UniProtKB/TrEMBL annotation:
It comes from the Bacteria. Belongs to the pyridoxal phosphate-binding protein YggS/PROSC family. This is Pyridoxal phosphate homeostasis protein. Gene3D superfamilies: Alanine racemase. It holds the Pfam family Ala_racemase_N. CDD domains: PLPDE_III_YBL036c_like (cd00635). Pyridoxal 5'-phosphate (PLP)-binding protein, which is involved in PLP homeostasis. Keywords: Pyridoxal phosphate. InterPro entries: Ala_racemase_N (IPR001608), PLP-binding_barrel (IPR029066), PyrdxlP_homeostasis (IPR011078).
Length: 252
């Protein structure tokens, strides 16, 4: 496909930004065989044309936080090589839509959502069977943890994320639901706190979780501003938006 001058300048910009993020990741990853983390490029608010450019630059994992926007981009690109990660707060009534395109959900934070995702996966596999389409893999689920101290959580609920004491029950529910695979934990570093301390707590929670669910080793943590702190605390999946795509356009 030939590109317009605007498209090729955007392609050069994205290539440059992606290279510097990859360099930061390489510099922050221990040389002694620590597994290379998965880079999820968060493309929210940016057009499908940017996702296509990123795909051509070798990106396979993309993150989105709104079902409507994600569903539209996934349908427009219809690229089986892309893995779509749903990273935003998710209403249960969107579960049916999300399981059509998403490989994973990073924001599982309540039992009602676990059961909605399980039901949606069952319906999706039946829909595929009826249409003669191959089954999809199980949905990878990350339990999102709210790392703020208890009083801050209680003063300002509804930000997304389960209390640390609720993780074990949620993990058992995911692991016990057909169609769902328990991947591990996800968190966003709380505002105003050293991300290193917050991600340290996430790492401890992950080790606790692995005592009952040894396969649930993934840790989704680290954004543009704190990827180094996340990697120092065992992150396996980074979610990087603005440092690859640029400043987000004003919300429409
Ligand atoms: C937007 C978003 C990101 C990416 O943040 P940047 O600071 O742009 O890298 C990561 N995780 C979640 C949950 C997000 O909503």
């Amino acid at each position: 496909m030939t590109m317009t001058p605007e498209q090729s300048s955007r392609a050069r910009e994205l290539a440059h930004r992606l290279r510097s993020v990859r360099n930061r990741i390489a510099a922050a990853t221990a040389p002694d065989g620590q597994n290379e983390p998965h880079l999820i490029v968060v493309t929210k608010y940016f057009p499908a044309s940017d996702v296509r450019i990123l795909r051509d630059l070798g990106v396979r994992d993309v993150g989105e936080n709104k079902d409507q926007e994600a569903a539209a981009k996934a349908a427009e690109l219809a690229d089986p090589e892309l893995n779509w990660h749903f990273i935003g707060q998710l209403q249960s009534n969107k579960a049916k839509s999300v399981v059509r395109y998403a490989a994973s959900v990073h924001s599982v934070d309540r039992l009602s959502l676990v059961s909605a995702l399980g039901k949606a996966m069952g319906a999706e596999q039946r829909r595929r069977a009826d249409g003669g389409v191959p089954q999809r893999p199980d949905l990878s689920c990350f339990i999102q943890v709210d790392l703020r101290p208890g009083p801050a959580r209680e003063a300002d609920p509804g930000r997304g994320g389960a209390a640390p004491e609720d993780v074990a029950g949620l993990a058992d529910a995911v692991a016990g639901t057909t169609g769902l695979r328990l991947a591990g934990l996800m968190a966003v570093a709380p505002l105003g706190e050293d991300p290193d301390a917050a991600f340290g707590r996430l790492n401890s929670l992950s080790l606790q979780l692995q005592q009952n669910h040894p396969q649930a080793r993934s840790i989704s943590a680290g954004m543009s501003g704190d990827l180094e702190a996340a990697l120092a605390n065992g992150a396996t999946h980074l979610r990087i938006g603005s440092d690859v795509l640029g400043a987000r356009p004003p919300v429409r």
